[in-house]
Amino acid sequence: MKRYLITGASRGIGRAIAEKLAGKDVELLLHGRDTVALAQTRKVVEPQCTKVTPLIHDLATARGVSDLIAEVGRHPIDLLVNNAGIAVVKPFTEITSIEWEQTVGVNVTAPFLLTQRFAPRMSPGSSVVNILSVAAKTAFPNWSAYCMSKFALEGFSRCVREELRDRKVRVINVYPAATDTEIWSQVEGKWPRDRMMSATQVADAVAFALARPTDTLIENITLSSLVGNL
Prior knowledge:
By secondary structure, this protein is α/β, with parallel strands linked by helices. 38% of the residues lie in helices and 17% in strands. The relative contact order is 0.15.
């Protein structure tokens, strides 16, 4: 049985990835903070899986990450998807220290701690997938905290890829452009969500990369809408 850990699986890209990877020989370890939304994800994928384990933890805190690690247990996992993320969108002069620390905690420190814990125990052919963003490569006004966190995670994950290469553990970075998820409901302003990519399109790309032969690594996947970056 394969064990797949997906953070931020309550909705959006995380849920779409869970739906895409569900299988009879798979245990899905699904993280989220929204108990109700995570239960909905579980309801959708459970009929297709051997087992579904919900993990309700706040990745903004070290305690939340350590509790998640403890609940996953000592058995190795075959896939880690670092998908959970938060976005603080405002001029850099208005970002509070708490907002900055939460952004770093969820978007950078949690993936670091989870990768550090689980990747060394992965068997050859296993994978770490990081859901980054075009904001890991491009600067956008008022997105300084978010861009900072994605730039940081990209640098970390590229180094980890080289460290894990000899062990045949793949590190796959995905860089989606604007994707129609609930995150936009929390961001001020009017955003053309009808012109954005869907979470399913991102999940399809992840599934494609994971389906390659284990000695083949698709290092980076950049996804955008034909209308361009929004």
